[in-house]
User: Which sequence fits this backbone?
């Protein structure tokens, strides 16, 4: 059975992770800093704050954005529950906007309509790695004095009008969980546009203590007066060593994902019962998922399974969960999207034969 995802571990990781274990310096240190610097260089993004998950990246970003209990954060239901949980954890209220049928991304028109005096931020998700309409979202945010926090868990390496995802909004959150493009086992990062936010974030990821400016006293403890309690969210050095190794041939892996994705698009463009999603010149996807709309979805999934291929919705709308208040009645496009969306395997470890098998299986019908 060809699976939806594959976890990439670079062969060089065995040695580099072992070296960290041998050093016995396991917590946050030079490797974390090196991983942050490597990400900055590779993706042309402001220096990320490396953390222990994408979920904590979202939480830290919301905290840095000043989101407080009762504040409203506009997001979309087409995501993983991590996005909504982070909002709830800050005591804030997720307000669900509708999405675009041909991307799964948040619809700026719907965002506009959801703004109230309590709205403090917009939290768009780049579904499958395809960039949201950031021009319009940024303009709406600017017009209403809102922060933008991007959930870019699927979008490492994506770009919008030539600008890297991670370098556009106040905050951008990445995930290095096992099935994401670059894994550290578990891990995440938040990029901040402002240096002040970055500094505050570096503090907040480690209890709120400024390690660089809290010297050891003669008594053997750092000197500090904690005013704002922070979190225990930092990445550790053996995770960072794995991340560094996994960046090594990322360019080739990303190129392979792009190539497979365009093969699929070419092969499926005239297949009856399939509607491909939008692809625009100025939106360069990170190709984390390959999704489309399909007629008779369960028949499709069964047919693919019988031919040895996994097909999956990946995530259905999250507002359906009780903790988020149940399915919203005013999101007609999300309703339609939820009923027909499907994804087939897209990852850089698929062989040419497997790609051929997937294409033949889909075009054979269901
Ligand atoms: C993976 C993911 C996250 C969270 O990532 P973790 O690193 O697992 O905490 C957040 N949002 C989306 C859309 C994701 O897919």
Assistant:
């Amino acid at each position: 059975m060809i699976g939806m995802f594959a976890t990439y571990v670079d062969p060089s990781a065995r040695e580099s992770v072992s070296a960290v274990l041998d050093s016995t310096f396991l917590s946050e240190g030079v490797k974390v800093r090196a991983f942050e610097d490597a990400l900055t260089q590779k993706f042309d993004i402001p220096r990320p704050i490396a953390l222990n998950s994408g979920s904590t990246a979202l939480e830290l970003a919301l905290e840095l954005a000043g989101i407080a209990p009762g504040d409203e954060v506009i997001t979309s239901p087409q995501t993983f529950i991590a996005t909504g949980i982070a909002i709830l954890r800050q005591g804030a209220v997720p307000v669900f906007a509708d999405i675009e049928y041909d991307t799964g991304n948040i619809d700026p028109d719907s965002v506009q309509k959801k703004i109230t005096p309590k709205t403090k931020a917009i939290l768009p998700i780049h579904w499958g790695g395809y960039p949201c309409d950031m021009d319009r979202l940024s303009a709406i945010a600017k017009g209403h004095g809102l922060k933008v926090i991007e959930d870019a868990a699927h979008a490492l390496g994506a770009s919008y009008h030539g600008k890297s995802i991670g370098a556009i909004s106040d905050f951008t959150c990445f995930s290095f969980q096992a099935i994401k493009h670059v894994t550290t086992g578990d891990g995440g990062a938040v990029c901040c546009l402002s240096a002040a936010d970055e500094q505050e974030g570096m503090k907040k990821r480690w209890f709120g203590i400024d390690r660089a400016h809290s010297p050891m006293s003669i008594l053997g403890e750092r000197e500090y007066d904690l005013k704002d309690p922070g979190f225990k969210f930092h990445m550790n050095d053996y995770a960072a060593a794995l991340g560094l190794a996994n960046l090594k041939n990322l360019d080739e892996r990303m190129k392979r994902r792009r190539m497979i994705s365009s093969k699929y698009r070419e092969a499926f463009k005239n297949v009856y019962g399939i509607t491909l999603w939008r692809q625009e010149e100025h939106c360069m996807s990170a190709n984390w998922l390959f999704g489309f709309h399909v007629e008779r979805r369960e028949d499709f999934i069964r047919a693919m399974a019988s031919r040895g291929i996994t097909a999956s919705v990946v995530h259905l709308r999250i507002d359906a969960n009780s903790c988020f208040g149940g399915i919203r009645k005013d999101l007609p496009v999300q309703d339609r999207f939820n009923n027909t969306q499907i994804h087939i395997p897209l990852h850089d470890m698929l062989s040419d034969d497997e790609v051929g098998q997937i294409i033949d299986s889909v075009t054979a019908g269901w």
